[in-house]
Structures
1.
Amino acid sequence: MKVWVLRFGLPITMVLSILLLVGCSDKTKPDVDALVYENAKPLSEFALNDQHNSEVTKANFEGQWNLVFLGYTSCPDICPLTLAKLNAVHKSLSDQYALQIWFLSVDPKRDTAKKRKAYIDYFNPDFLAVSGQHKALFPFVRELGLIYAISDSTEQEYAVDHSASVALVDSTGAVRGIFKPEFKQGSVPLINTKKMISEFKIIADYYE
């Protein structure tokens, strides 16, 4: 029985097996619009406070999937609309997956624990409403792959620029991906609820 050998010295049966394995592997990788890191990016240790004034650390990510959104309680549109969407996402997925939603306030000057609690309770009291000083917030936000900018104005009313994306953190405290918002003319950038639910399932099932 002949075994055909290609010029680089491998039996053709072995080459076909390798190609088959590679093909199967490619097909199973998440085919989604979300940005997905094949090698999740571990977060550094951090210490912030939740809406009950309890300390929150990297350990709070462990044991479940986590969706993290930046904002502030005085935000007029993106924040309340996104949190409403994340509540719908949570309701749809929480029976199948251990999932926590994080609202990360990047306006610690105005967003006290009491104010964050009143705000997040409107959407879902089981969500975390976390904040801290900028020296702790900024490096944490940067590692999430998100961004914010805030003025040092002494005025009571001011706006905060922040990402409309949502970071996906896995059960080890590593960033697995980012769900990007949709940009439509005449509307603020917002996540697509149905797409996030569908793509979350694909990503979670692949990496669990």
Note: The chain has two domains: 1-28, 31-207.
2.
Amino acid sequence: MGLVVDLHPVPEARATLTHANCVVSTPLGYRPLHLDLHVPAGDGPFPVVLWIHGGGWMSGSRVWTVDDRFHERLVARGYAVADVDYRLALEATYPAQQADIDAAIRWLRHHAAALRIDPGRFAALGESAGGQLAAIAGLAGAGDTAIQAVILWYGPADLANRPNPDDPFTNLALLLGGPLSERTGLARLASPTHHIHPDGPPFQLVHGTADEIVPFAEAVGFAEALRAQGVRCDVLPVEGAGHVFAGASVEVGALTEAGADFLDDVFGRSGSS
């Protein structure tokens, strides 16, 4: 039997990239963790959006995006974008991933002046598994890890109630270090629903109504729980779309722009200020 090789395409040049392969953390015994930063031209300081990729905590890369023009759109709107790395589930169990996100936030804020970004206007945009990490960053961050706005693209909110709780080989079981039935406390720790508090940052939830991986009803329930605590939560249903906006009747770029509109409102901006 021959070796099966998964050959990915040659990446395209990224015209918006200003700082590549920035080392933000060197956890002992693991690979260094990096981010790539895209900063608009000008003096700034610019608000920054942390892009946190999905992949079920088992795959993915900071260079993978759902919208092919994601960076161009946000940079054109006056936002810096930081593409963030984190360890996957077979590299380390939770909460290592959350520590990696915190390390990126801390590094960006420490170097904010040199990077021309605004330390008081940090947003996290996460998709799928990255949405769970973005939500926890927003709800649990404080001080040098604080996040002022969160956008979730079809991210799970309650990991303590997932299918197949006794299966030790689900993505979630591998993330938690054991089957969900034996890791309920850790699952709650990793669940945005269990971190809601009145001082949480504003949220925008963008979710396909036909999503069978993370049901739309989960986003609705999370939104209701946030609002019950007085936290702003805007819900943008994507009619007929499945997970990763599959089958959406709207272009994904329009959803990126909707996120920028939300952030403009939260940060009191007028397009590029």
Note: Strands lie at 19-25, 33-38, 46-52, 80-84, 117-127, 149-153, 203-208, 233-238.
